[in-house]
Amino acid sequence: MIKIAVLVSGSGSNLQALIDANLSGAIVGVISNKPEAYALERAQKSGIATAVIEHKQYPNREAFDDVMHQQLLDWGVDLVILAGFMRILSAKFVQAWEGKMINIHPSLLPNYKGMHTHQRVLNTGDVMHGCTVHYVTAELDAGQALAQAVLKVNLHDTADSLANRVHVLEHLIYPQVAEWICNGTIQHTQRGVLYRGKPMLEAIQFCKF
Ligand code: GRF
């Protein structure tokens, strides 16, 4: 059974969706860089081990990442799921977990990498918006996309309403992709990413209009 760790910094609604999905892998631990993250309570309520590793207590990014890396090894983790983890990871850490670490980003990548995606979508006047689950590579929000969920931006949408609407989609596709990795539907191999044993040429699309 695949052992999963979820890295969080905040509310952890995606963590909750992953817990509720009863994945065929086991969530063995949750790491937060913030002691006040509500995600920690969610984990504890479900009997999942937690670790608080405060980035502020380490002299640099690498030192912080080394402690996280060791914790992941101690838990015997096979898959790292970033779920609202608000720290940029060092190249060394990303390399160590390449092909074993996924993230969810609130935009239709490659559009709107980085922060404040909902407001930027509104500023541009885009008609479509959504979220993307992708493998994590050294370049921010640039690893291979595995799944995307799309929604139509409404005239009355604000950054907050878009955030809420995108969240609903996140809770749908993140557990789905996690399960696909747990049950081998998606595999990261030397030949690239495979979906049902064949090269995955594009992200699986989910639409909701
Ligand atoms: C989500 O919007 C996700 O796309 C982004 O961080 C947010 C996490 O929300 N990476 P939550 O903590 O899972 O509620």
TrEMBL record:
GO terms for biological process: 'de novo' IMP biosynthetic process. Its EC number is 2.1.2.2. The record marks D141 as: Raises pKa of active site His. The active site is at H105. One of its GO terms (cellular component) is cytosol. GO terms for molecular function: phosphoribosylglycinamide formyltransferase activity. Keywords: Purine biosynthesis, Transferase. Residues 3-177 form the Formyl transferase N-terminal domain. InterPro entries: Formyl_transf_N, Formyl_transf_N_sf, GART, GART_AS. (6R)-10-formyltetrahydrofolate binds at R61, M86, R87, I88, L89, N103. It catalyses: N(1)-(5-phospho-beta-D-ribosyl)glycinamide + (6R)-10-formyltetrahydrofolate = N(2)-formyl-N(1)-(5-phospho-beta-D-ribosyl)glycinamide + (6S)-5,6,7,8-tetrahydrofolate + H(+). Pathway: Purine metabolism; IMP biosynthesis via de novo pathway; N(2)-formyl-N(1)-(5-phospho-D-ribosyl)glycinamide from N(1)-(5-phospho-D-ribosyl)glycinamide (10-formyl THF route): step 1/1. N(1)-(5-phospho-beta-D-ribosyl)glycinamide binds at G12, S13, N14. Gene3D superfamilies: Formyl transferase, N-terminal domain (3.40.50.170). Pfam families: Formyl_trans_N. Signal peptide: none annotated. Catalyzes the transfer of a formyl group from 10-formyltetrahydrofolate to 5-phospho-ribosyl-glycinamide (GAR), producing 5-phospho-ribosyl-N-formylglycinamide (FGAR) and tetrahydrofolate. Belongs to the GART family. This is Phosphoribosylglycinamide formyltransferase. It comes from Acinetobacter tianfuensis.
